Amino acid sequence: MILSMTGYGKAETNAKNKKFTVEIKSLNSKQIDMNVRVPGSYRDKELNIRKLLSTALSRGKIDCSLFVEYTGTEKIANINAEVVKKYYRDLQNIADELDNSDELMSTVMRMPEVMKVEKEEIDPQEWKTIESLIQQAASALTQFRENEGQSLAKDFKIRIENIHSLLLSIEKKEQQRITNIKERFVEKLSELKSNFDESRLEQELIYYLEKLDITEEIVRLFNHLNYFLETMNSDISEGKKLGFICQEIGREVNTIGSKSNNAKMQQQVVQMKDELEKIKEQILNVL
Predict the structure, then answer these.
(1) Rounded to two decimals, what is the model's pTM?
(2) Which of 76-80, 89-93, 130-134, 213-217 is least confident?
(3) Which among 21, 30, 24, 16 is positioned nearest to 59, based on CA atoms?
(4) In Å, what is the CA distance from 19 to each residue of 16, 81, 85, 220?
């Protein structure tokens, strides 16, 4: 299974003259990096929200917002009567001296601390509603990640198959390449028109050809490609593990390129590197 770290989820409901909305966004990140925004009266629940998100989403740059909109006639702020009276008396005295009392009350109502907002206690049932919304939004985000992951998986499979086809082509050329190297080596020696120890020549030739042989690298690369597909199709998304496999694939491809000493094979190596780089770019976004 492939899950993208990019996602979006939203859930909303109405309860007790309030509309609750939860939005969660996620981007790629090596670890879990969380930002939670809630109204001031719900600040003491921030830690609970973080725990819920950590359990549900595991990794990524998570941005969660809780919005609360009052839909009923319930008062959320009261007039601080004593403060209003004090302001009014003081301003009335000044206005009398200046002989100007126009719009005195509107001026008072704009003064600091005229409105008194009382801290709300969060009802247990209300918190259960918010918890449920967070879980719904997280589930929606996970579904988004799955959909994105399916697209990534299709792309990965195509590119791994392309590397596999190029490797098969290189494998077919390998035996003929070794034969050609051996023939050229003997031909150059014969042009020297000098005596040489054939037994020693055979030993040196075997040593030289072993240095250029890429059979082991081809076998290992086939194994890495198969392992990548197996990991990609496992029950959980393992982005970090896929990244490590890509490093091993790259190591074998580089070795084949340096040892092949063949223009056509090196061109195919370049093509394999191009496919691998495109995989690496997307692996960073896999959970």
Answers:
(1) 0.75
(2) 76-80
(3) 30
(4) 8, 30, 35, 58
